[in-house]
Design goal:
InterPro entries: Aminotrans_V_dom, NH2EtPonate_pyrv_transaminase, PyrdxlP-dep_Trfase, PyrdxlP-dep_Trfase_major, PyrdxlP-dep_Trfase_small, SP_NH2Trfase/AEP_transaminase. By secondary structure, the protein is an alpha/beta fold. The longest helix is centred in the C-terminal third of the chain and has 22 residues. It starts with 6 loop residues before the first strand and ends in a 6-residue tail after the last helix. The mean pLDDT is about 95. The protein has a seven-stranded mixed β-sheet, sandwiched between helices. The protein has a three-stranded antiparallel β-sheet with strand order 11-14-13, with helices on one face. α10 runs parallel beside α12. It has two domains: about 110 residues, Aspartate Aminotransferase, domain 1, CATH 3.90.1150; about 240 residues, 3-Layer(aba) Sandwich (Aspartate Aminotransferase, domain 2).
């Protein structure tokens, strides 16, 4: 039975190119030198793609989804005598709190409104008055699509001598990040986000001097970031445990395609154009954006569900899926919302086709006159 393909308008997994899919047809051996060379080259290209100095930083892939990577970072970096300050304005900031709880880490959790950007103005006093040694922030909070200001938070960390950890799950590869300027010690992202690979592993970009201090901190065997790094360094790309070989090969292809596109700056431009077409088109159709334009990321946009007795998100979702598009439900308690992503192998033509399908839904099902 032939399966119908559709465009994934989500923040990951996302629509991938045919070339990314096709390279997964070959099988690989985890300890073979050819595969280990592939891994080492991938680690180097992860750094180069984001402009991270390869003399200062190292990239450590970790089996599992993005949350596995975040848990590896928190569990392997924060010592018993340290204190972590979690700045949160969404579900994924709250998830870091859950990780810190389970790992029994000493932390302080500050929650901002889900529609408020975490920037210098909002965080300055919090950071200055905190006894935290480490600060963590989600760059692009996909709960809403809000883009937090890591430039300004990184500057505050530098001024106040705090170690800066960044959850760049939905931003790395799609939004330019200045590692040196932002004073980033650790940054975590995933294979199935803006670099446009498939799910299967996360990766943590670490300052070499910082990760050297992480030995014997983790209380987890499989999520020990230091041990993973040490083995990869000593055995030239060997993962400690079974590597997601096909996913790694797909990710290497995705890195090549990022380079072919013109790098992160060009991809950021495409994503931004997609988001502009989407948000302006939706507003013309009568849908309201939840987040103000000045703090909206180019990754995913949150819309308020229309107040119409004929409307239900499930029906809307099913209608669009038949049209060839899959969108995302909302996840904020008390907010009647849904989300549409535009990262991945998505072009402006896809956004325009989506808008035509949504217009079709509003006229045929809701009875609107657009």
């Amino acid at each position: 039975m032939e399966e119908k393909h559709y465009k994934l308008l989500t923040p990951g997994p996302l629509s991938t190119s045919s070339r990314v899919k096709n390279v997964m047809l070959k099988d690989w051996c985890t300890w073979d030198n050819e595969y280990k060379e592939l891994v080492q080259n991938m680690r180097k290209k992860i750094l180069e793609a984001g402009g991270a100095d390869t003399d200062v930083y190292t990239a450590v892939p970790m089996q599992g989804s993005g949350t596995f990577g975040v848990e590896a970072m928190i569990g392997s970096v924060i010592k018993d005598e340290d204190k972590l300050l979690i700045l949160s304005n969404g579900v994924y900031g709250k998830r870091i709190k859950e990780i810190a709880d389970i790992a029994n880490k000493n932390y302080e959790y500050i929650e901002f409104s889900y529609d408020t950007c975490i920037d210098k103005k909002s965080a300055k006093k919090v950071i200055e008055n905190s006894m935290a040694t480490h600060i963590v922030l989600v760059h692009c909070e996909t709960t809403t699509g809000i883009l937090n200001n890591i430039d300004e938070i990184g500057e505050l960390c530098k001024i106040n001598n705090r170690v800066f950890l960044v959850d760049a799950m939905s931003s790395y590869g799609g939004i330019p990040i200045d590692f040196e300027k932002n004073n980033i010690a650790f940054l975590v992202s995933s294979s199935n986000k803006c670099i446009q690979g498939v799910p299967g592993f996360s990766f943590i970009i670490c300052k070499k001097e910082a990760i050297k201090e992480c030995k014997n901190i983790s209380h987890s065997l499989s999520l020990d970031l230091y041990d993973q790094w040490e083995v990869m360094e000593k055995d030239c790309g060997k993962w400690r445990y079974t590597s997601p070989t096909h996913v790694v090969r797909a990710f290497c292809q995705a890195l090549e395609e990022l380079e072919d596109e013109g790098g992160i700056t060009k991809r950021y431009k495409r994503y931004s154009e997609n988001q502009k077409i989407l948000s302006e088109g939706m507003e013309k159709l009568g849908f309201k954006c939840l987040i103000p334009k000045n703090i909206q990321s180019p990754v995913i946009t949150t819309f308020q569900n229309p107040k119409n007795e004929k409307y239900s998100f499930k029906d809307f979702y099913d209608f669009l899926k038949k049209e060839g598009f899959v969108i995302y439900p909302g996840s904020i308690s008390g907010k009647n919302i849904f989300r549409i992503g535009n990262i991945g192998d998505i072009k402006k033509e896809d956004m325009e086709k989506l808008l035509k399908s949504i217009e079709k839904y509003t006229t045929e099902v809701l009875g609107w006159k657009n």
